[in-house]
Amino acid sequence: MEQNIETETVQTQDETTAITQAENAQTETEDQTEQVENEQKSEKDAETQDNTEQPEKVQQEENLQQEEIEQKENVQVKSNGKSSLTYNPVSVEELVKKQTVAVDGDETVRASPLMKENQPVEFLDENARTLHEIFLRGVKQSNDGPCLGHRPGPGEPYKWITYNEVLTRSQHFGSGLLHEGAVANPDQFIGIFSQNRVEWKLTEQACNSYSMVVVPLYDTLGPQSIQHIMTQCDLKIVVVDKNAKVKNLLAGVKDGKFAVTLIITMETLDDEAKSLAESANVRLMMFKEVEEIGKNNLKDFVPPKPSDLHTICYTSGTTGLPKGVMLTHGNIVANVSGVYAVGEKTFITMSSAEVYISYLPLAHVFERLMVAQMFYVGARVGFFQGDIKLLLEDVGVLQPTVFAMVPRLINKIYDTVWAGVASSSVKKFLLEQALKSKMAKLKRGIVTKNTFWDKLVFKLVFTRLTKCTKILINTPS
């Protein structure tokens, strides 16, 4: 009993000490901020008085004074004796100017400064003008390094296949498709009805290398939306991941809603799927079976032209029937080139050392663009396990350097952090004070990661979520 009382007393003392340290740190931060602001105010007042007394100063001296003021505004706020990063308003203005320029002096019409003679930049590398060529560039940039990775199960490490292995397997699968009736031209549409996984990208790369067109279907589509896409694109060959989707498609065929001749599945077929396929007169094949057939009947690549259709990308159907957008290889390459060029001129530089986690639906064009960007620089792409509840575990194992996020995920992380401190008044107080301090700095234009609060509070979140991440991208859901 006495031991319990002593333990509780020590814990209370520790909590009191933590609160005291937090309050002192907050006061110190506020004092530093006030001191910086007072110094700036005094300097500006002195400058105003000096200008009043000596109106005859030459323009050269005024420019020199303005230069000194701008330098002093770029103040370094210190925490625990170490200088933190600062946000210089002048440099921000320069950064904004680099993003767009006024067209013909009209500030309401903006264009990329990368444009030459009012012509948009379609590509940066003459040898990378299609997605087939972008992947070949990735092979060289990576020095045949790791390309696609997946986790076989919870608790297991990522397993990787190299760029050349992806290229070889894509050639095998593409050759298998041709052997089974597909044709190597942009009139051939191949459906993909699957979650993100290695086989998804192998299928797409096979289409890219043999001039076929990818038509992805969202994992969450209902029967009406599926029927709409299947009939509008007249899809005869569809690659799926699970038996449930095989049965879904077969039911549509049997009911006369659309026609399919070949369904290729990544999962081992069950007896029910085989029976349904037989009654619907639809051929079923395993993904590996098609690869093996292609390996034994290898065909040379039939590369597309930049103007050839690459994909028909449909919306998710949340506002009515899905709407299809036709995108060429040139469209995708222009986007990838633009992002790369802007990154080189700012701070979003990417290289073959990058690691990207793919969990946003590949049926969405944003995720396709992100993966194409990784291929362009020869980087790695690791897939999540397919369960969004395990995403943070996947992130912890993969340690991505590039992470695309949506508001829904950010809100989930936010709620998780607050739920974690709800049972402790001390932790809750510390988090509140940390947020208050961080927001005050952001409003003043100061961006920093090594204050007292970063080390005491935010480090726990960063360590789990962004230990290696250098680029976080927020995209609409």
Automatic annotation (TrEMBL):
This is long-chain-fatty-acid--CoA ligase. Gene3D superfamilies: N-terminal domain of ligase-like (3.40.50.12780). Residues 1-63 are annotated as: Disordered. Residues 156-421 form the AMP-dependent synthetase/ligase domain. One of its GO terms (molecular function) is long-chain fatty acid-CoA ligase activity. The keyword Repeat does not apply. Keywords: Fatty acid metabolism, Ligase, Lipid metabolism. Pfam families: AMP-binding (PF00501). The keyword Lipid metabolism applies. It is an enzyme of class 6 (ligase). GO terms for cellular component: endoplasmic reticulum; membrane. Residues 1-27 have a biased composition (Low complexity). Residues 38-47 have a biased composition (Basic and acidic residues). Residues 28-37 have a biased composition (Acidic residues). SUPFAM superfamilies: Acetyl-CoA synthetase-like. Its EC number is 6.2.1.3. Transmembrane segments: none annotated.
